[in-house]
Amino acid sequence: MGLGFLGLLVFFLGALHLLYPIFLQIMVAGFAVAGIYFSAFRLRALGRIRAGAWLEAALVLVFGAIIIVALVHPTRFYAALTYHLALPRQYLLRNSIVPIPSISYSYFPEIAEML
């Protein structure tokens, strides 16, 4: 259960013509709350933090910062602009997953692009 499950949920919402932004926001918020809850539960179960865990936490923070910078940086690559970002945008505009004649990849099911 994770991003694959979230991608399948978004895909099925689109197949049922229910791909509205409010449903997506509710799903992402639900997954975020569940993740925070289970993370807090695991931290409580661990009790004391071992000495090496601080190094691991620092590495996670560094890689997290790198990912955030990559996410907010605008993309200029052709495939990203014409397929990876344009196709989900068209699905959101139509509130469903439908074939789009101008984008040939719309005839293939996507899961990762739904996120």
Main sheet overview = none
Number of helical elements: 5
| Helix and strand pattern | HHHHH
**What is the count of distinct domains?**
1
Number of strands: 0
Radius of gyration of CA atoms, rounded to a whole number: 18 Å
Considering DSSP H and I runs of 4 or more, what fraction of the residues is helical? 55-70%
Mean pLDDT: 81
Straight-line N-to-C gap: 14 Å
Which structural class best describes the helix and strand composition? mainly alpha
Strand content: under 5%
How would the global form be characterised?
extended
Flag low-confidence runs: none
Mind explaining what this structure looks like?
65% of the residues lie in helices and 0% in strands. It has one domain (3-114). The protein contains 5 helices and no strands. The mean pLDDT is 81. It has helices at 3-15, 21-46, 53-72, 78-84, 86-94. The protein is mainly α.
Task: From the structure above, extract its key features.
0% strand, 5 helices, mainly alpha, 115 residues, single chain
Describe the secondary-structure layout.
Layout lengths: L2 H13 L5 H26 L6 H20 L5 H7 L1 H9 L21
Short description:
With 115 residues, the chain is mainly alpha-helical.
